[in-house]
Amino acid sequence: MTPDLPSLMARVVRQDIQGLHAYAVQPSAGFVKLDTMENPYPLPEALQQALGERLGRVAINRYPAERTEDLKAALAQFAGLPEGCALTLGNGSDEIITMLSLACAVPGAVFMSPLPSFVMYGLSAALQGVRFVGVPLAADFELDERAMLAAIAEHRPSLLYLSYPNNPTGNLWDDAVVDRLIAAMGEAGGLVVMDEAYQPFAARDSMARLAAHPHVLVMRTMSKFGLAGVRIGYLMGRSALIAEIDKLRPPFNVSVLNAEAALFALEHADEYARQAAEIRAQRQRLYEALLAMHGVHPWPSEANMILARVPDAAAAFAGIKSRGVLVKNVSALHPSLANCLRLTVGTPDETTRLIDALRASL
Ligand code: PMP
């Protein structure tokens, strides 16, 4: 007998999953794409050629284990991995968040982050049936230290995610507050994940915290660096802890082509550093242009995006889009983001297009 698919699905798929929506991306073909914090620069022509030749010689008939070990060693050197620490790879840092959730989904566990922050922290907890507690940020998107300390004491979360800089607000938090939260998490017996996706554009990082505290992990990605299509994320922490989390990694999760492309990028880190410097310069230009627009309030950013409040985000989003530029309207993500747009920093030309489109849409 041929089964009826809807009733079959209702029986075999978890009920909580049936109520969720898949992670959605807006169609972007033909637009100046300033919605997902990608690096807008391709590699220079000569490097593209060299990369093509390198990829052409990769042994795609073999499983990728050796090359991914080379990549781990290269990333450890690049990031300055402290003594006693190890690193594991994810197919993007999204997969690392999944691995962390799987590893720490003890019955009764709580995961926590400030809000608004990266949506996958909460979604990934929900997928594992773990309770997620979000603690609203204070005015100007600083950490609300008292509320965070109270929530840590009450819930004793096993994971605290701090996106540093934060998505979608773009800021780095007060370091003294971050350090006091890390101390509180140490006392509560939980892990702190410093999510440094935007580290290439930020003035500070948490490598010293990683070296100092056994319960601190640092997560990074090559996506914002310039390899969003390649999908390489990595997690650094004490070797024994990384060994546990590594057990949740799907075998051969990073393809040999991805590993080779990432190794190539690290060999040309100076080119990527040049691109990041250009993006930081455009960020400053965009920030100043937004400040000068009547009714627009941009927040200072340490990432490759700027959060800006406008008089009417839906109208501004549509107006910008009708002029061929795609940004992200984040108004619905959290009450504190009412009428806020998140603007990715592009090339000088793209930034000009965005500034003109927004000005015309106000
Ligand atoms: N962390 C943060 C804070 C992000 O904003 C993102 C993506 N926008 C990620 C992690 C995931 O990045 P990826 O999976 O591309 O490494």
From TrEMBL:
Q: What name appears for this protein in its UniProt entry?
A: Histidinol-phosphate aminotransferase
User: InterPro entries per the record?
Assistant: Aminotransferase_I/II_large, HisP_aminotrans, PyrdxlP-dep_Trfase, PyrdxlP-dep_Trfase_major, PyrdxlP-dep_Trfase_small
Q: Which UniProt keywords apply?
A: Amino-acid biosynthesis, Aminotransferase, Histidine biosynthesis, Pyridoxal phosphate, Transferase
Originating gene = hisC
Name the SUPFAM superfamilies for this protein.
PLP-dependent transferases (SSF53383)
Describe which pathway this protein belongs to, using the record's wording: Amino-acid biosynthesis; L-histidine biosynthesis; L-histidine from 5-phospho-alpha-D-ribose 1-diphosphate: step 7/9
Subunit structure, as described in the record: Homodimer.
MF GO annotations: histidinol-phosphate transaminase activity; pyridoxal phosphate binding
Pfam families reported for this sequence: Aminotran_1_2
- This enzyme's EC code(s): 2.6.1.9
Q: Which ranges carry the Aminotransferase class I/classII large domain?
A: 32-358
Q: Which cofactor does it need?
A: pyridoxal 5'-phosphate
Q: Which PANTHER family match?
A: HISTIDINOL-PHOSPHATE AMINOTRANSFERASE, HISTIDINOL-PHOSPHATE AMINOTRANSFERASE-RELATED
Organism for this UniProt entry: Rubrivivax gelatinosus (strain NBRC 100245 / IL144)
Q: Tell me the superkingdom of the source.
A: Bacteria
Any one GO BP annotation for this protein:
L-histidine biosynthetic process
Q: Which residues carry this modification: N6-(pyridoxal phosphate)lysine?
A: K224
Top EC class, one word: transferase
Q: Which family does it belong to?
A: Belongs to the class-II pyridoxal-phosphate-dependent aminotransferase family. Histidinol-phosphate aminotransferase subfamily.
What reaction is this protein's catalytic activity?
Answer: L-histidinol phosphate + 2-oxoglutarate = 3-(imidazol-4-yl)-2-oxopropyl phosphate + L-glutamate
- Keyword Membrane carried by entry: no
